[in-house]
Amino acid sequence: MFPPYELSMKRITLSLFWLLATVGAFAQDIQVTGKVSDKSNNEPIPYASVSLLGTSFGTLSDFEGAFALAFPANQGDTLLISSMGFETMKIPLSHDAQSQEIQVSLSPSSVLLNEVVVHAGENPAWRILRKVVDNRKQNDYKQLEAYDYDSYNKVEIDANKISDKLGERKIYRKIEGAAETVGELTDDSGEKLIPMFISESYSHYYYRTNPSLSKEVIKKTHVKGIATTDGSLTSQLIGSTFQQYNFYGSRLNILNKNFSSPIANDWRLVYDYYLADSLTLGGEFVYRIEFEPKNKQDLAFSGVMWISKANYALVMIDATIGKEANLNFVDRIKIQQDLEQVGAVYFPVKSRVVIDVDQLSKNSSGLLLKFVSYNENISLNQPKEPAFFNNPIILSDDYRENEDDFWRKIRPESLSMDDRKAYAMIDSMKQLPTVQRITTLTNIATTGYVPFVHGVDIGPLVHTGAINNTEGARMRLGLRTNTDFSKSWVLKGYTAYGTKDGKWKGGGEVMRIFSKSPWSTAKIGFKKDLEQVGLKEEDVGLGSIFSAAVRFGTLLRPYYENEINIEAEREMSKGLTAKMAFRTRDFSPLYSFSYYSEPGEARSYFRTSELVGEITMARDQINLINDNERIDMGTVRSPTVTLKYILGLPNVLGSDFTYSHVMLRYKHTLSLGSLGKTYYRFEAGKIFGTVPYPILKNHLGNQTPLIITSGFNLMNYYEFTSDQYFWGRFHQDLEGLIFNRIPLIKKLKLRTFATGKILFGSLSEQNKSINNTGLVSDQALAVKGLDPYKPYIEMGYGISNIFKLFRVEAIHRLTYLDNPGVKKFGVKFSAEITL
Asked: What is the reported pLDDT for 577?
């Protein structure tokens, strides 16, 4: 028998043990893990709210859509999962399992924000947005003196929305059959995906603010694609340089379109906001603010962002551009970004971009483009010298020599089963002869050349043939060597024949590439061919397509030219390129032309020998190297300035004249936010000396119904010639600023623009005299100059994106209205394909 006290203590102890055991059984934590994805495309949904219904337990999904939530079993039995732009979902939980894993697919919702009625006072989100804008400069990493980081980037392109007609085609069935030998890729809605391209790159990115310069050293790339080779050009395009998204800037440039940031200075003019929640995220108290554009047709985002209360910095953002925006061929653009505090600024460490491209026609497919970037090992304020940035993109010598072990170690997240399947499917499809032919045709379309024999290509195809009044049917055959022949030497040559004039033309060129980084070349060439006064490529500044097009129809003031040219080019430093050349040419006209070589002595033939020097300055210009070619990708913010000097040498190889020509060109593009973009160009020049008018500046007129951006669209051909001149042109692209706000019409996605062109010029009496010999029977050939105090002016306005293809401009000529045969007003059009 136990004493009463001891028995009581044992009973109490037993009761407490039983009570604790009972409480432990009921209070055992349940651990729920899972992933939240978009049901329409299987993309992860970051920052989705995951909470236990009726309780305070909750969390957010991470950048990959994954989440983990622990809570006592007696607290609830239903998960509530929501994210802006998606239908909210309730999922019942089981109490029988302490560890549960669920996959959640949310359906997109057509309603992004609930209507909020503020009865008194201001919108509480505005107070936060004002402080965000006030603190933008101190939180923006672009304001640092310098930064650099390691970057991993993955790009994937899939064909989706495959039409029934396309699915029935034999070529598609072969591709589909090859893909299905590996497996099948679908999104959660069951829609089939065909992988077209997948790549990974690992690089180190450098940036300094003053001057604004960047450089990327691409260490490794892994590229697989249909109609794509793992060439150096592709490897340069998939790195971090072309995946920069900074919401602290007023505008984000995506696909060459400027989108308003929700934290830009003009935030109240563009967006509506709603303060949805406040919570602790990663130990930091943040505000959850939802936003949408006031006008859904504008280039602006809908989404949600998280703002730090401590310093009003952007911590996370999930932003979407919907189908209603004034874009062509794009159903949706989605940008998700995760920023972390590094030093005093917030730096983007994870970015995901999804671009859903619509079908171009009912017989085609859509495209799903996915870009993922991870940045780590971030270093701040350790600027490199400006000379370090001379080459903005560099490929390491062994950038393609990598193994699977390397990528397994370097990837921030392992390849998913679908990623591995995509790699295998592309490998399988590339073995098809049909796909190999597509690859060949794609290369032909992008380069203009067709492989002929090993190391030699035929082209450019755009110059293969033409029909005109002088040559009749013109047939041309051109050859060039490629990198299989040599990586240091490039040989080019062509021959052409006209059935009407019965003359053979041709030319050749040898180029030596001394260095690709920095770019340094020398070349020598010769040519005997038919040209037109004022329409050579160097005169109008247009590319090979224009130079091929002007050989059709009626040729304007044609002449035969023999030319020998020796030229050297070198990139002196970042954005500074210099050229030096010597060339000799002769002029043999095929139309009525003469000039006074001496008083009373008329001639129609002449020869020139020239020294040419040219310097081009474009501070943040990006140039890519594609095999033996250097491709200009343009500038990011800075203007492009070109200074050129031509010195005519007398009595050198039979040359007839002494003269000099000084020329300055300037071009720049400005982003004006909601007002669109402004493109402006100007050129000023002066020719010293007395020379025939083909050497002078013959301003480009346009008497066709087509719009020519580089010419004066209501000026007649050869209406004005100058030996000193200044011209400028501007183009204001207003995007959908006007039509986006007109009911019904806004659905057509029309855009407006305005143009203006002005020309000042003069022609000396000496040059008037030498060119107007009095022997010209047709007065239309007489050389005329402008009044030095009266400019030529034309203004235009119009509508673009008509049926996503056409552009129509109404043009007014404002001066020189009394000249014979001029039009005061005209309507012209052109075709263009833009986003």
From this structure: 94
